[in-house]
Amino acid sequence: MPHTKKNQGEVFTRIKELKGSAWETSWLALDSQNKQVVLTYIDAEKYKTHYMVTARSEGKTGDEAEKIADQKTAHRVEEFRARAKKAMALDFPYIAKTYKLAYDEERKQDFMVSEYVDGIPIDKAVAGMNAKQIVSLYLNALDALQHIHDEGWLHLNIKPRLVVVENRKDGHFLAKLSDPGFLTAKGKTEYKMCGTPSTMAPELIVEHKADERSDIYSVGVLLYSAFTNNYPPFKRPSVHGGKEKLIRHVKAEDHPQAPSLQGNVDGITEEVNEVILKMLNKNPEERFKSCDAVRKALLKACPEAERDVIGAGMTIASGINSVPEE
Fold first, then answer.
1. Of the candidates 129, 130, 239, which has an alpha carbon nearest to the alpha carbon of residue 194?
2. Where is the domain boundary, 96, 115, 134?
3. Where are any strands of DSSP class E within 109-236?
4. Three-state SS for 22?
5. Range of 191's domain?
6. Which residues contact 183 (CB under 8 A, 6 or more apart)?
7. Residue 324 located in a structural domain
8. How many domains, the chain?
9. 0.90 cut: is pTM over it?
10. Same domain, 96 and 132
């Protein structure tokens, strides 16, 4: 198996490639203590190639294009390093721990080392669960986001594969944020459109505005989908199809139907419907103001929900999240 050497000499054994993004690669690996970890690399060369091609298409000379590409790539690397340092400062039971930021001398790439959550994405895990179990798992995710918000950050990239349900040895299920995201600072006057359009809050797409309620919207998309087996509830075009097309599509969207009218989940009540639809309101002023408020509303609507979900004979198989993301 291939090895990755850190500049201080620590050796990691890469086992298999995990889901990543267009600009990063992630590997399940063993550290020097034989513990499973995730290595996430930033692909600086891919960034540079992209910026070079873009600059040349805009009429820049080869030297000019290379200078622009070097500057923009260096900025991306610094963003990656800053993101890792922010994540390392988070310490919460429902967030996968980021252990360190390192540099691979052989590959000439920065990478971060983080906790490996052995489980499957939440959208796969909730199949066959009842309302109580589904709500219980989403309490974990909401608490994780509340902690991120309390630390002064927004996530802005909530999607199913980043909320992993872990099957623990005690027979309970636990949902964890497997990646704390880009951790954008709260209180900015403008935010870049980031993340997955299907789970992105309308105000982020249309107005480049965001706050805690934007993350609540994204969790609402996942929760709605859990009760309807319909992910995502809004069939939005990708950013690659043009931002203006995406904005027009979002502006034209109607409010979704109540989950109970579309799904077959046992135990869903009118009160649960109301919570989910409030999370998904296109107007952020009409949503819950905090994840804590959502949690309280869900517990009121589904008082039998628990912090941890007992397996009750169900099994969550690991390894599904090893397929590369499209």
1. 239
2. 115
3. 109-115, 119-121, 153-154, 163-167, 172-177, 184-185
4. coil
5. 119-317
6. 83, 86, 87, 148, 153, 154, 155
7. no
8. 2
9. no
10. no
CA-CA distance, 81 to 76, in Å (whole number)? Answer: 9
Quick check: is 326 in a domain?
A: no
Residue 322 resides in a domain: no
| CA angle in degrees (0–180, nearest 5) for 193-215-157 | 50
* pLDDT tens across the length of the chain (326 residues): 555 555 456 789 999 998 777 889 999 999 999 999 999 999 999 999 999 999 999 999 999 999 999 999 999 999 999 989 999 999 999 999 999 999 998 888 999 999 999 888 998 888 888 888 899 999 999 999 999 999 999 999 898 888 999 877 666 788 999 887 678 889 988 888 777 888 889 999 899 999 999 999 999 999 988 888 776 777 777 766 667 788 887 887 777 777 776 666 777 888 998 999 999 999 999 999 999 999 999 999 988 886 555 554 344 544 434 333 33
Residue with tokens 């489980």: 119
